[in-house]
Amino acid sequence: MEIRFYKFHGTGNDFILIDNREGHFQPDVATVEQMCNRRFGIGADGLILLENREGFDFGMIYFNADGKVGTLCGNGSRCITAFARYLGIIDRKARFEASDGEHLSEVLSADGDDFMVKVGFRDQKVGEISALGTFIDTGSPHLVRFVPETAKVDVVRDGRRIRNSKKYAQTGVNVDFVEIVRDMIHVRTYERGVEDETWSCGTGVTASALVVASKFVPPRGYYQVQTRGGLLKVSFNQHHDEFTDIWLEGPAKKVFEGTIDL
After folding, report:
1. How far is CA 104 from CA 60, 81, 244, in A?
2. What pLDDT, in 10s, does the model give residues 94-132?
3. Is CATH 3.30.360.10 the classification given to domain 124-250?
4. Residue 6, exposed/middle/buried by CB under 10 A (0-12, 13-18, 19+)?
5. What string of DSSP letters covers 62-127?
6. Closest alpha carbon to 57 in 18, 17, 22, 105
7. Rounded to an integer, what distance in angstroms lies between the CA atom of residue 162 and that of residue 147?
8. Element (H or E) spanning 57, and its range?
9. Are 76 and 70 within 8 A, CB to CB?
10. Could you tell me the residue ranges of all domains in the chain?
């Protein structure tokens, strides 16, 4: 069985995207894991299916690189919005369904294979603070830790230790290492499901910006966030540690397309 796929990335967070509106692709864990493998497959941080959803422009099903169905993916949401525009499903604005429900998104600009996209998040409240860090669930669970220099952190070692700690071993957690550099935030993320550092994590960037806003500075409404793969922007309305009207904005790019024989 041949499947047509498209490769997109959002600030280095890369995904295999498949137009599955006709429902021909019914993946199992092993198939997705092999497709995402960087040595024996296409290679990606995850795989995303675009499907029909009644009452929405499209539905989004996200699989982690380990082949298991994942929770919300922020950069993946931006990439699938760009993909929907590329396929002609939407013009600029979209209303789609993800694992945590309804989301709005918008293509701010499109130039060939390059897009600028923003996606909205549900309202948030900063969660439990412990010795490990500050917990917040931005559609995926995140633990935000402040460090003096993100460049010096062993993200894989330290992130894996926390992700597999007694507190989080059962459910897993993404770990964000955050450094505040003047009026900008630097973030590096260890992602569960990938079980490695990714070059960017949209839900992690959003989580980090909200935690920073709740702790350190007067309300300002947005943050620029530097990841290994590029620059993102998180904007929001804030009332103490509660946030509404949250948007993640940044580039999304179509890298290539092809077919794979399964």
Report:
1. 12, 10, 13
2. 999 999 999 999 999 999 999 999 999 999 999 999 999
3. no
4. buried
5. EEETTSSB-S--HHHHHHHHHHHHHHTS-SSEEEEEETTEEEEEEEEEEETTEEEEEEEE--EE--
6. 105
7. 15
8. none
9. no
10. 2-119+251-261, 124-250
pLDDT tens by residue, 21-77: 999 999 999 999 999 999 999 999 999 999 999 999 999 999 999 999 999 999 999
Token pair in block for residue 22: 């006709």
What CATH class is the domain 2-119+251-261? alpha beta
Residue 219: pLDDT above 80? no
Point out the residues that are catalytic: 73, 201
Q: Could you tell me which of 94, 99, 66, 101 has the C-alpha nearest to residue 79? A: 94
163 pLDDT tier (thresholds 50, 70, 90)? very high
Q: Which of 119, 178, 120 is nearest to 148 (CA)?
A: 178
CA distance linking residue 210 with residue 221, whole number of Å: 10
> What tokens were used for 88?
């002609």
Intrachain domains 2-119+251-261 and 124-250 with the same fold: yes
